Amino acid sequence: MRKTILSLIVCASIASAGSARVRHDEETRHDVDKRHDADKRLDQASVVFSEIMNAPDRGIPRDLLDEAHCAVIVPGVKKGAFIVGATYGKGFLTCRGKDNRGWSAPAAIRLEGGSLGLQIGGSETDYVMLVMNESGADRLLQSQFTLGGEGEVAAGPVGRSATAQTDAKFRAEILSWSRTRGVFAGIALKGATLRQDLHANEALYHRRMENREIVRAKIAPTAAGRKLIAALDHSSPREKS
User: How far is CA 51 from CA 16, 54, 60, 66, in A?
Assistant: First the structure.
């Protein structure tokens, strides 16, 4: 009888250890998948920004980028109908500090709600935002931030230089643009909400971090993050205030 009980205990221990190992392996695969997804989106953000800035006479004006405190890139937002309305996407933000140390490690964000412009069929839309002052940067680094309000967000101009086109940079905290099927234009993203994506940050940096900590604490970027920083550096390595 005693041997039977001992055998049952041993079998139960082996089964429990096996179950724990399976759970651990599943959690590890899940973490790897989340990291892969975040890295893939970072790569997409790098490509989107580079393509927009390399478009002759149809990119973001360099003088605006040179004065920007932060940049937000949300690549490949999808919507499955010919409609103007709410949508959802994931992207990244990066900021430059007052000490002019260059672009920070990217922090993950989600873009939700609001009327984000006309999206045709199953096409994808890329969104880019520049934050033009310290007040806007502080709002951006909150846990969530709804775009809107007088003078807060405006459609950004397109071209080599914004000087002769608009005085938007003197009035708006945030300038925004969209690109759908190769058509790039300024768009005012009023009513949309930016939320920090803590799960994506954890996947990238292996611990739960808020966007403000990533941007302000000089966190080292990942390999995919360095690609995005390199794309921004190529167009504007240092802020010109």
Answer: 52, 5, 11, 18
pLDDT digits (tens, 9 = 90+) for 159-184: 866 554 555 555 789 999 999 877 88
DSSP track, 25-73: HHHHHHHHHHHHHHHHHHHHHHHHHHHHHHSTTSS--HHHHHH-SEEEE
**What single-letter amino acid sits at 19?**
S
Alpha carbon distance 57, 43 (integer Å): 24
Q: Rounded distance, CA 162 to CA 59, Å?
A: 11
**Strand ranges in 59-203 using DSSP code E only, listed in sequence order:** 70-78, 83-84, 88-95, 107-112, 118-119, 124-131, 144-146, 153-155, 174-180, 183-186, 193-196
Write the CA distances from 129 to 36, 44, 81, 204, integer angstroms.
25, 16, 24, 22
How many Å apart are CA 137 and CA 229, to the nearest integer? 18
Residue keyed to tokens 């096996």: 18
Token output for 24: 């651990």
pTM more than 0.85: no
Q: How far apart are CA 130 and CA 153, in angstroms?
A: 10
**For residue 94, with 0-12 CB atoms within 10 Å meaning exposed, 13-18 middle and 19 or more buried, which class applies?**
buried
For the record, the structure tokens of 125 come out as 């839309």
